[in-house]
Amino acid sequence: MSAAESGQAAGEAAGAGEAAAAGEAAAAGEAAAAGEAAADCLFCRIAAGSVRATIVHDDDRVMAFRDIAPRAPTHLLIIPRRHIDSALELTEADGPLLGHLFAVAADLARSEGIAAGGYRLVTNIGDRGGQTVHHLHLHLLGGRSLGWPPG
Ligand code: 5GP
Ligand code: ZN
Questions:
Q1: What residue's CA is closest to ligand 1, atom 15?
Q2: How would you classify residue 113: left for phi > 0, otherwise alpha for psi between -120 and 50, otherwise beta?
Q3: Residue 19 located in a structural domain
Q4: Which of 83, 134, 135, 137 is catalytic?
Q5: Residues 110-136 pLDDT 10s
Q6: Is 149 a domain residue?
Q7: Residue 148 belongs to some domain of the structure
Q8: Pick from 148, 147, 142, 149: which is nearest to 71 by CA?
Q9: pTM for the model
Q10: How many angstroms is it from 6 CA to the middle of ligand 2?
Q11: Ligand in nearest proximity to the CA of 130
């Protein structure tokens, strides 16, 4: 879809209130794209280096570090550097970032030695989804057999 077409589609989809909300969301997205961390966000602070973590991957878009309370022999958290509250906030435009996030996860599974045996990627969304840190992250869990469904 061209930029003009997607602009038109967005215009058709958005009512007056939605347009205002979309404007706010766009402004927030621009702030995040400009590299501004969300206030009081633990993972933004880890990304900025002001809270320490055991970092296992770091590039201009994505970071990964060991979970402070591991639930499996390998338990990594993979985050976009840019603040995104959760997967609920994602849009089509985040496709390249997500591709990179998942590719980093695959590389880490290989380097952790759990790729061949199998592992799990999961992202919790909202309170009932078990999300406690409101900055999008993938949990990479492996090194043991994992039950299904999760609790
Ligand atoms: P959620 O519950 O939001 O899906 O996952 C948040 C994860 O962050 C939890 O597994 C929790 O153990 C981990 N966590 C919380 N605080 C810290 C911290 O200060 N450092 C690290 N490395 N992990 C943390
Ligand atoms: Zn954040």
A1: 68
A2: left
A3: yes
A4: 137
A5: 999 999 999 999 999 999 999 999 999
A6: no
A7: no
A8: 142
A9: 0.81
A10: 28
A11: 1
Comparing 43 with 33, the larger pLDDT belongs to 43
Range of the domain at 18: 3-142
- In ligand 1, the atom with minimum distance to the C-alpha of 51 is 19
The total domain count for the chain is 1
| Average pLDDT along the chain | 84
Question: Confidence class of residue 36 from pLDDT cuts 50, 70 and 90?
Answer: low
To test the pocket of ligand 1, the residue of 132, 134, 137, 141 to mutate (highest count of ligand atoms within 8 Å of its CB) is: 132
Which protein residue has the closest C-alpha to ligand 1 atom 17? 68
Please give the Cα distance from 45 to 23 (Å, whole number).
Answer: 26
- Summarize pLDDT for 57-100 with one digit per residue, the tens: 999 999 999 999 999 999 999 999 999 999 999 999 999 999 99
CATH code, domain carrying 109 = 3.30.428.10
Q: Does residue 121 sit within a domain?
A: yes
The reply to whether 139 belongs to the active site is: no
Helix (H, G, I), strand (E, B) or coil at 98: helix
Report the amino acid identity of residue 17. Answer: G
Cα dihedral sign, 9-11-13-19 = positive
